[in-house]
Amino acid sequence: MAALTPNISKIPELNRRIIITLAMLAVFRIGVFIPTPGIDAEALSGFFKAASGTLLDFATMFTGGALERFSVFALGIMPYISASIIIQLLQAVVPQLEKLSKEGESGRNTITQYTRYLTIVLSIVQSIMIAVGLESMRGPAGEPIVLNPGWGFRLMTVITLTSGTSFLMWLGEQITERGIGNGISLIIFVGIVANMPSAFYNTIQLVRAGEMNLLVIILLLALMVAVVAFIVFMEMGQRRIPIQYPKRVVGRKVLGGGTQHLPLKVNTSGVIPPIFASSIIVFPATVANFIDLPIMKRVSDALHPGGIYYNVLYIIFIIFFTYFYTAIQFNPKDVAENLKKYGGFVPGIRPGANTADYLDTVLSRLTLWGALYLALVCVLPSFLITQFHAPFYFGGTALLIVVGVAMDTAQQMESHLLARSYEGLLKKGKIKGRGL
């Protein structure tokens, strides 16, 4: 990638995609600072400061600070992620949806449309819950957060927040289609990275105030570097399955033959499992913070970051979604059928069902290590940070998402550069025919 980077400016198509991506992400950051009507900003800011260290910080991180400011993007992209989770789960149990997923481009477009509709429904439900909860909340001095409570405020909040989430959903899809990288992941990425300056500033203030030891900061920074290196190592790790192709005789020529490799990544699911797991845990805990009921208070306390219930649920969800998303991304039966169709086989394994079982066994073992790696990266740093009272930004989930999305985006850019290089070689290699 480093060798190809100077050539980026020479490729108009890649330049256009990068500019579109940066422009749309800039629109997202501008929208974070547009407030929702009817809110006392100072009282809301005081409420979030008083709730520092809870899952509200986690939700704020995923929305890029929009929830703390209660802007038009306060819900962030989480309703869309939750809708995607529900639709993908339904594909495994509803035959009609499973059939649609196998109908090619038209089927995928229909499922995408269902995901959009469900996103709107979830946004409306979450907006109503948050609006009702805010009406009962008070700032540090007891002042009301909502200036004019009632159905007028609730309706305005539902319209504003639902429209904001719908716009973010559209923005992410446009980045994926017209820009570079996965739009939804990049929106979350930018939201996390945008909090870096304030996180470093808060850390410096804690050191100046004597609330944190400089040695602790150095140890945390060293831990971050080690975690980043570990993430890159695991994301690059793969198991190569040898695939043998027989030789074919066509006329007087011998074609084909030789050995190729089928790469199986240790973490096939990428950063999706932590994002899915986080969204599931954050949603009920966030709603619990805005609803003044004893049972909701107990839910919020039980799901406190670093707590036993939080960590156990987080690990369970990460392992589940790692296996679930890997099963969606890689189907051993389809791969085995394609290998058999083109004459390929794994040495020592019979084609067909035996090959599918072998690939499934290897993938299951790799996925177990991938799930444990994701759980370790996401839970262990959060536990250490909770003990040392460091800013919540330095959690493993944030690092995993930032590093994973950066690597995926860099790989897509590299693919464009390599494709352009091959295209240039083909053009240069053309043999001109003799003129008439």
Number of strands: 4
Low-confidence blocks of residues = 428-436
- Quickly give the structural class: mainly alpha
CATH uppermost class of the largest domain: Mainly Alpha
Question: How would you summarize this macromolecular structure in one to three sentences?
Answer:
By secondary structure, the protein is mainly α. It has helices at 12-32, 41-50, 55-62, 66-69, 78-91, 95-101, 105-135, 151-178, 183-193, 196-208, 214-236, 272-290, 294-302, 308-329, 332-341, 353-388, 396-428; strands at 238-244, 247-250, 253-256, 259-265. It has 17 helices and four strands.
Write the layout of secondary structure elements.
Layout: H1 12-32, H2 41-50, H3 55-62, H4 66-69, H5 78-91, H6 95-101, H7 105-135, H8 151-178, H9 183-193, H10 196-208, H11 214-236, E1 238-244, E2 247-250, E3 253-256, E4 259-265, H12 272-290, H13 294-302, H14 308-329, H15 332-341, H16 353-388, H17 396-428
Antiparallel strand pairs: 1-4, 2-3
Helix pairs in contact: 1-8, 1-9, 3-12, 5-7, 5-12, 6-7, 7-8, 8-9, 9-17, 11-16, 11-17, 12-13, 12-14, 14-16, 15-16, 16-17
Word description of this protein:
The chain has a two-stranded antiparallel sheet with strand order 1-4. The longest helix has 36 residues. 69% of the residues lie in helices and 5% in strands. The relative contact order is 0.12. Strand 2 and strand 3 form a beta hairpin. The chain has 436 residues and is mainly alpha-helical.
Question: Main traits of this protein?
Answer:
436 residues, mainly alpha, Preprotein translocase SecY subunit, two-stranded antiparallel sheet, 17 helices, globular, disordered C terminus
